[in-house]
Amino acid sequence: MKILLKKSSNIFVSAQASKLDTDGAIISGMRAPSVTSQTHQLIDVESVPQIAKPGQSSYDPSTEQWTHPVELYTALIPELKEKIDAQRDLLLYVDVDLEFPDGVVRTVQYRNEKDHRALSSVVLAAMANSIANDPTAKVKFRTKDDHTNLVESSDFISIAMGVMLEKEGLYQIAWDKKDYLDALDPEDEDYATDIANFDPLSGWSEE
To answer: C-alpha distances in angstroms, 26 versus 7, 21, 52, 70, 192?
Structure first.
């Protein structure tokens, strides 16, 4: 592909230029008479980095290296955090296999917030029984195999804790990733590299 640069500074002008001569440039199909071959150059590159912004990023044809101001890297952080949240939710809403008191491993559905509320409502009922000093009182909970389980309140609280502990780990990983981004110092010489190399989709223990 071709990009348009200012000759004096190598500042990136556009990736939409198709022609450049002394009469001007053709950018996005329109003539730009003030952008001429005397002040600009049209060169071939393999690709334009997603972070590159016209008027801010620069490209050195001799080294084939892009340079971007620190502010552009800082602007990526909110987007990276959104990707962290999206990956967390993708891994969060996954069914969990647990052994029930009868010795059978059954699947606790955890597909969405509705499943979370269903689990929580039974937990609240089990906790109410325990508070009332009746931990052996049974609660009903339906698993993925359409089996209605009658489980003593104390046992069900343990089952629910198994689900919650697994999910809590995902939140902790997400918090750690966000804290890492927040701790990066724009004054550090590795700041841009650290952000450019940060992968919000890796490093999840549940993968």
So the answer is: 17, 9, 20, 30, 33
Per-residue pLDDT of 67-113, as tens digits, reads 999 999 999 999 999 999 999 999 999 999 988 999 999 999 999 99
| Cα within 13 Å of Cα(89), Cβ side | 8
Run of H or E including 106: strand 105-108
**What pLDDT was estimated at residue 173?**
93
d(CA 4, CA 28): 12
> How remote is the C-alpha of 6 from its chain's centroid?
35
Q: What is the pLDDT of residue 166?
A: 81
CA distances (Å), 47 to each of 41, 43, 50, 69, 147, in order?
Answer: 17, 11, 9, 19, 55
Give the pLDDT confidence score for residue 167 in this predicted structure: 87
Element (H, E) at 44: strand 40-44
Low-confidence ranges of the chain (pLDDT < 50): 206-207
Question: What's this model's pTM, rounded to 2 decimal places?
Answer: 0.71
- How far apart CA 69 and CA 201 sit, in angstroms, is 25
- Main-chain phi, psi angles of 51, to 5 degrees: -75, -20
Provide the mean pLDDT of the chain.
92
Contacts within 8 Å (CB) and 24+ apart, 172-181: 173/88, 173/203, 173/204, 173/205, 174/84, 174/85, 174/87, 174/88, 177/84, 177/203, 178/81, 178/84, 181/77, 181/80, 181/81
What is the chain's length?
A: 207
